[in-house]
Amino acid sequence: MKTTGGTDDQKRRAGERAAELVAEGDVVGLGTGSTAAHAIRAIGRAVDEGLDVRGVPTSFDSRALARQSGIPICSLDEVDGVDLAIDGADQIDADLSAIKGGGAAHAREKVVDAAADRFVVVADPSKVAESLSRPVPVEVLPDTHAAVERDLEGLGGAPTLRRAERKDGPVVTDNGNLLLDCDFGVVEDPASLSTALSGLPGVVEHGLFVDLVDTVYVGTDDGVDVRERG
Fold first, then answer.
1. Which residues contact 109 (CB under 8 A, 6 or more apart)?
2. Is 59 annotated as a binding residue?
3. 164 assigned binding-site residue
4. 81 carries a ligand binding annotation
5. Nearest by Cα to 41 from 10, 84, 70
6. Taking the domains of the chain in order of start, what are their residue ranges?
7. Which entry of 16, 78, 109, 228 is annotated as an active-site residue?
8. What is the DSSP string of the chain?
9. Residue partners of 84: CB distance under 8 A and separation at least 6
10. What does the UniProt function comment say about this protein (predicted)?
11. What is the pTM of this model?
12. CATH number for the 136-202 domain, one of 2.60.15.10, 3.30.70.260, 3.40.190.10, 2.60.40.10?
C-alpha cells in the first residue's frame, strides 16, 4: 500500500535538505521509503567526505541502502539515544500528525522516531493534507487478525488485510506479523484514535504518529517548505 505522487526532484530536495541537519558524531534514525532514501544517500556522501555518524535503520531496505551508501549502522540497543531521525510519511496534517506504514515498517519506525531528540519528516506536496484521511496501517499478530478486524469495525473502521504483490498471500512485516489497512474516513481526532488502537489486544503497532513529528520538510518544484510543530 505504498503511496505515490510527487516528483523525484521534490523528494530529493526534501531528503537532501534534512540530511544537512546531521552533525559530527550524531546517531541518526534512517527512515524507510523513496524520500527518506534520498536523505540516506546524502548522508552517505557526507560520510565519504569524512563525517563521523552512525545510522539506526528502521527496515530491511533502509539497512541495505545505508550499507550501500557507506554509513556505519547499529541497533537501537547499541546506543544511548538517537540525535535525529529522518523519515517519510504517507500523509501529514496541519498539526503535524502523520500516517505511516505504506512500506510496512511503521512499528520499527515509531520506536526509532520516538527515541530521537528531533524527528524530521521529509515529504513531497502530495503527502500534505489539512486532515488525515488515508487508511491507517495496523500491524497485528497473525493469529489475532480476525479478532482485531472485528474490534476495528467496532471503532468505526473498515479493515482490509494487505495482500502481497507478485506472491500469494498477505504482506508479512519484518517482524513476522500481518497488516490491516483500516479506513476511518477523515480522522477528526488522531490522538483519541491512536489511544484506542493501541489498546486493542493483538495490535503490535499502528501507523498514526501523534505528537512525534518536530519538523516537516516538503520538497517543492523550486525549494523546500519547512513546517515546525507549534
1. 31, 32, 58, 59, 87, 100
2. no
3. no
4. no
5. 70
6. 8-129+211-228, 136-202
7. 109
8. -----S-HHHHHHHHHHHHTT--TT-EEEE--SHHHHHHHHHHHHHHHTT---EEEESSHHHHHHHHHHT--B--GGGSS-EEEEEE--SEE-TTS-EE--TTS-HHHHHHHHHHEEEEEEEE-GGGB-SSB-SPEEEEE-GGGHHHHHHHHHHTT-EEEEPBPSSSSSB-B-TTS-EEEEEE-SSBS-HHHHHHHHHTSTTEEEESEE-S---EEEEE-SSSEEEEE--
9. 21, 22, 26, 27, 28, 29, 116, 117, 118, 119, 120
10. Catalyzes the reversible conversion of ribose-5-phosphate to ribulose 5-phosphate.
11. 0.94
12. 3.30.70.260
Q: What pLDDT tens digit does each residue of the chain (230 aa) get? A: 455 678 999 999 999 999 999 999 999 999 999 999 999 999 999 999 999 999 999 999 999 999 999 999 999 999 999 999 999 999 999 999 999 999 999 999 999 999 999 999 999 999 999 999 999 999 999 999 999 999 999 999 999 999 998 888 899 999 999 999 999 999 999 999 999 999 999 999 999 999 999 999 999 999 999 999 87
Determine whether the annotation assigns residue 127 to a binding site.
yes
The set of cell numbers assigned to 78 is: 547499541
Q: Is 8 annotated as a binding residue?
A: no
Q: Are 38 and 14 in contact (CB under 8 A)?
A: yes
CATH fold for domain 8-129+211-228: Rossmann fold (3.40.50)
Is residue 153 flagged as an active site residue?
no
At residue 155, what is the residue type?
L
